[in-house]
Amino acid sequence: MLGAITRAVVTLAGAHQNIAYGLVLLVSLSESLPVVGAFVPGDAIIFAVSALVPTGALRLWPLIIAAFIGAVLGDGFAFWLGRHYHAAILGRWPFRGRPRLVARGTAFLDRHGGKSVFTARFTPGVRAIVPVLSGVMCMDAARFYLMNLLSGLLWAPAHILAGAAIGASFVLLGAVAGRLALMVTIVLVLFGLLYVLMRYLLRRVAPHALAAQERLRVWAAARTGWFARQLLAVLDPTRREMPGLAVLGAIVLSSLWLFFGVLQDVIAGDPLVRANLAVFHFLHSLRTEWVDQAMVAVTELGDTGVFAAVALAAMGWLAWRRNWRAAAHLVSVVAVAGIATVVLKIALHIHRPEPIGTGWDAFAFPSGHSAANAALYGFLAIITAWEVEGRWRLPMTGAIAVLIGAMAFSRVYLGAHWLSDVLAGTAFGIATAALIAIAYLRHDPPRVGATGLCMSTGLALLLVGGIHIVQWHASDMRRYQVRQQVQRMPLEAWWQHGWTHLPARRIDLIGGAEQPLTLQWAGRRAVLRRELAGHGWQPPPPWTLRTAARWFEPHVGLAELPVLPHLESGHREALVLVHRSTHPRERYVLRLWHSGTVLTAATATEPLYVGTVIAERLQRVAPVMTLTHTLHDYDAPRNLLARALVHRRLRVRPGIRPQPAWDGCVLLGAAQPRGARRRVHQRRAATTAHTASTIPNGQAPCRNP
Predict the structure, then answer these.
(1) Could you tell me the pTM of the whole model?
(2) In the chain, what are the domains?
(3) 476, 510, 619, 621: most buried by Cβ count inside 10 Å?
């Protein structure tokens, strides 16, 4: 029955686009109605309708907005019913015949308190009863609607994106769905780390900050002078706000430490700079149209127009309460973050990954977008958390931290900024917000009206942000579209010296230098695969649930295990082949990555790949775990591969000293051109002579295999 209803709704949605958005709104609303929501297959319908997004039948953002509005209106209506009819509603249909459901909802409210409104949205079985019970139990209306809005903001995208991922898996046979799932996993991990960091700062750093404060107070008490007296007055332990100020001080110090650490790495060209390119390429490879739409919308929420509207809404609320001091500090936060980032951009002249912006806006470091939003929302979070009850501080600051983190991540994902730009900008913004908040809070400031301030700024963000997204989303999608950056090099120039311009070692995602890139291949992957197939090089087992489970089997051979993926400057492997070794517990693995360069010849162009050839050995870890260990010998696997190639050269990389693991030689291979077979022996002889003539002093020539 429910399956038939779901199929009928999906059929109707696919045929009529405008009706589909209304259906999602109604389903989201009905799912929140008292008791009725427990019998509505809302999740199934929303997932099924969202699966139409990858086909182009429906658009992503109207679906998210419709689901959000329906969920908020449904919970709001249920809350109004409870407030209006009080306990009398529990004696009427449909509550009268379901005392166990009412008892579960009441116990849920008692256990979670005000957070139950947020938590119940994601808890089957009680989400259809908690809103009305919140009204019956006379929960504070402002608190309910705040939790209602926050839960809707998270619930709607989570359901719609999950449905879109399911649809993508059918449309693109898993290719896009895999990237989308990995993208969602990365976002969830980042948000989880952000939540853990916020929780750690709020709950763990405070004791250490208080201890440092006491040592500083003792130091000041033992001295005279104006500075010591002022410091002693600030550190007075009788002031109840000092623990909070100590936490803010710790946040300032840690944020400035991160900012100056990133700045030093950028100026010195440390591994973080290599990580910039690796992260950019990695996220570039994961991009899909639907995630692009979501990330563009998130980044638009932090654009200047929306940012200004939120700041003006906060200023308006503070002016209405005649809290001119808070308003002045808010202006200071925005001004410091904005001016400092512009000055640093002009001083450092670091260009963006993609050509976005003109003038000083074409420079990347630090991210003004991230710094400004972190400063604004961070300051608002601090001054409002100062007034709310303790149990509400963590959910509220966590929600704002997620908003700041989402905006920052969207800049890296879309290629508008490097990772270092966003880290430095966010750290500087948070440090600015915390530092000015300390200056504001240390003199017993008047109340800002936390509930009203949150409501006014939240409405400004939703209203102006929604209008801004509708108005600019299409043009911004074109602005942030994926651009393929390809360099061109003549084929003969590559044979002679151009190959030395490519990296010597593989760079992992955090900027570390890994195995040497001992292979460069000019030609199609299919040609190399065919050329190596006759010499025992075969594709490894594909990654499936069955093959992944083999890593946990106590007795398994290398031939049954898939190859663990490796990244090179953020690029995923374009080709992976394996070759059996004479040793029963070893195998050779060839990995090939796109180099971002194409070689031009008189009649055609060929892609250029870089690669590694390594030897892996089976390693048992405990009785139920298997791992592979890379052997530190890169010459023998490279020479094994070289014997299978017809058109090849073995060259010494300049500036590399021979080591026991690698002699510094790189194998250059190319698809064999027509008429080349009769010149193979001549080329090999010429290659040997040329190699010997180009060897730097103190290095031995490469030995042809």
Answers:
(1) 0.55
(2) 2-168 (no CATH), 241-479 (1.20.144), 487-693 (no CATH)
(3) 476
